[in-house]
């Protein structure tokens, strides 16, 4: 089948699902000029356009053709909540009425956007709100990118410097759409955000961590560990039954080796559950020799669960114990707790 024919039978697709190279191919297939791809990308990713008709430097017939053959779906904001610390949470509705949340976290030096990758989550971690209502579907590449474009275009001050895939869902369970979105976010033609400023967080999907190691990207990998042994991790994260701790750590070693990048382990601190002296010692032993750091996350409350965060003293005692074992540890400052925008509080329902 000729390229031209191939594109004619293609169903109407969101243009943000199409990579730059494919867009060039498409333009060539309709006997248009390849450089229009640069203009289209510029309009979407740099100039904040959302419609083809705004792209006034494209020939009129091309604009019309694009409109006939592609769409560029908008996200609808159902709710926007601003925390007392300046964090903003958006509840978006997708074309099929499913919902997701996205959080913009400004600090003096950075603007971090926490992006969702799925509607709901399959993995059912026992402390996280995102999986409580189960899993509905993967987000498309366009829906992932649209969260970023929406926030970027919404306000002058929303200067997004970092992207973290730590919103609703398991990013590595939506691998292909995620990677396509990352390549676009990273590309100088697209959003031009450096790979080292993009973080993917996973509950520990071992085969996908190995696959990610082979992508040749310099992105940051964060792994939700939350337990120092199978015994403790099994109780909190059902995914551990499938990918136990030793397999997970082996995959992280592979990731270190292939990318020369350190892995960040996220470890939740729950009063009387995860922050004993024994757990700190075990964790220190487990991570010894690995190129990594550990980010301690004091539990953020989720109404369906009975857990509590430990006291400040306990948190820092745990951190100091880890540092004595030679593991670099930081404590994550919660952001946007008053609007349920902190880690583990995001949902896909109103
Ligand atoms: N599914 C991915 C992406 C989610 S990132 C993952 O599991 O890594 C969100 C981070 O917040 C994860 O580390 C998650 O384990 C953590 N988290 C979930 N619920 C939490 C809670 N109630 N308090 C603090 N952190 C939580």
Describe this structure in words.
The chain is an alpha/beta fold. It has 2 domains: 13-71, Orthogonal Bundle (DNA polymerase, domain 1), CATH 1.10.150.530; 78-339, TIM Barrel, CATH 3.20.20.70. It is built from 12 helices and 14 strands. Strands 3-4-5-6-9-10-11-12-13-14 form a 10-stranded mixed beta sheet. Strand 3 and strand 4 (88-93) form a beta hairpin. The model is unreliable at 5-9 (pLDDT under 50). It binds S-adenosyl-L-homocysteine (SAH). S-adenosyl-L-homocysteine binds at residues 125, 127-128, 166, 170, 201-203, 224, 266, 268, 297, 299-300, 302, 343-344.
Which secondary-structure class do the elements indicate?
A: alpha/beta
Catalogue the ligands.
S-adenosyl-L-homocysteine
Mean of the pLDDT scores?
Answer: 94
What's the alpha carbon Rg, rounded to whole Å? 21 Å
What is the straight-line distance between the termini? 46 Å
In short:
35% of the residues lie in helices and 19% in strands.
What's the structural blueprint in terms of helices and strands?
Layout: H1 3-9, E1 13-14, H2 20-29, H3 36-46, H4 60-69, E2 70-71, E3 76-82, E4 88-93, E5 99-106, E6 111-114, E7 118-120, E8 135-138, H5 141-154, E9 162-165, H6 175-186, E10 198-202, H7 206-213, E11 220-224, H8 230-236, H9 239-242, H10 245-259, E12 263-269, H11 277-287, E13 292-298, H12 312-324, E14 329-331
Parallel strand pairs: 1-2, 6-9, 9-10, 10-11, 11-12, 12-13, 13-14
Antiparallel strand pairs: 3-4, 4-5, 5-6, 7-8
Bound molecules: S-adenosyl-L-homocysteine (SAH).
């Amino acid at each position: 089948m000729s390229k031209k024919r191939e594109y004619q039978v293609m169903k109407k697709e969101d243009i943000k699902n199409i990579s730059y190279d494919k867009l060039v191919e498409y333009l060539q297939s309709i006997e248009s000029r390849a450089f229009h791809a640069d203009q289209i990308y510029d309009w979407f990713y740099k100039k904040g356009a959302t419609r083809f008709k705004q792209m006034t430097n494209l020939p009129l017939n091309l604009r019309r053709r694009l409109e006939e053959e592609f769409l560029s779906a908008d996200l609808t904001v159902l709710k926007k909540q601003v925390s007392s610390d300046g964090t903003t949470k958006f509840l978006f509705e997708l074309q099929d009425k499913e919902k997701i949340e996205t959080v913009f976290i400004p600090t003096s030096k950075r603007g971090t956007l926490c992006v969702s990758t799925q509607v709901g989550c399959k993995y059912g971690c026992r402390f996280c709100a995102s999986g409580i209502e189960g899993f509905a579907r993967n987000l498309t590449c366009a829906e992932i990118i649209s969260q970023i474009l929406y926030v970027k275009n919404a306000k002058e001050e929303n200067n997004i410097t970092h992207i973290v895939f730590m919103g609703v869902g398991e990013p590595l369970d939506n691998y292909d759409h995620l990677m396509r979105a990352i390549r676009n976010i990273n590309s100088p033609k697209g959003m031009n955000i450096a790979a080292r400023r993009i973080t993917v967080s996973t509950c520990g999907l071992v085969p996908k961590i190995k696959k990610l190691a082979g992508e040749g990207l310099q992105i940051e990998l964060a792994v939700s560990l939350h337990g120092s042994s199978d015994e403790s991790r099994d109780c909190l994260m059902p995914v551990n039954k499938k990918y136990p701790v030793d397999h997970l750590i082996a995959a992280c070693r592979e990731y270190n080796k292939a990318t020369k990048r350190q892995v960040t382990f996220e470890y939740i601190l729950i009063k009387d559950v995860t922050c004993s002296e024994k757990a700190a010692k075990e964790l220190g032993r487990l991570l010894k020799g690995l190129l990594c750091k550990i980010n301690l996350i004091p539990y953020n409350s989720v109404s369906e669960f009975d857990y509590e965060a430990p006291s400040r003293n306990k948190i820092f005692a745990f951190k100091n114990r880890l540092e004595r074992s030679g593991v670099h540890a930081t404590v994550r400052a919660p952001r946007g707790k008053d609007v349920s925008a902190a880690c583990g509080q995001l949902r896909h329902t109103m």
